[in-house]
Amino acid sequence: MPGEDRVIIAVALSATYSVVSATVATSVILTTEALGYRISLFGIVAYAVVIGSDIVIMYLSSRRLIYIFHRIAAISPGVQPQAHGLDHGEVSQELKLGEREQIVVDAIRRNGGSALQNSLVDVTGMSSPTISRVISSLENKGIVEKKRHGMTNIVMLKEGRKS
User: Fold this and answer.
1) I need a surface site. Which of 38, 43, 49, 59 has the fewest CB within 10 A?
2) Which of 15, 40, 75 is the endpoint of a domain?
């Protein structure tokens, strides 16, 4: 995908920056304590802000990278589309799946044919509203069904589509 390389590099650099930043900040605090100096309240608050922002950057970067890699895998020429569990003798009326739909179906398939809806957010890197829309679209196409499970849903591939 054109331009995807730059995005990957930018996201990877921001994740690397946050790791280095957290390491340096922690080293400063530990060295200050080891030398016997007292750290002011301002120093502790500043450290907490740096570490907190680094954690947010690392989290968002990792989600974005996972999403990008799933997109690349979904459209990569080396990845062959699966026949959605149909036997070789059956005629496939292949449904055209969008990029995000294919990522979600693949994630459910890798999880044995069912997955919690909120876990699909983490696995795919998509937002919760996006996952909800994709699952609704897959339900309308007859590919998945969902059942309430506590505060989330269990999303299952319909029979004949699990392999």
Assistant:
1) 38
2) 75
Under-70 pLDDT residues of the chain: 1-4, 72-95, 160-163
28 is in which domain, residue-wise?
4-75
Q: DSSP strand E in the chain: where?
A: 114-116, 144-149, 152-157
pLDDT digits (tens, 9 = 90+) for 143-155: 999 999 888 899 9
pLDDT in tens, 45-72: 999 999 999 999 888 888 888 877 777 6
**Cβ of 54: how many Cβ atoms within 10 Å?**
20
Which of 13, 43, 75 lies at the terminal end of a domain, its last residue?
75
Q: Which of 69, 53, 52, 62 is nearest to 11 (CA)?
A: 62
In a domain, 17, yes or no: yes
* Beta pairing class for 152-157 and 144-149: antiparallel
Structure tokens at 119: 């876990």
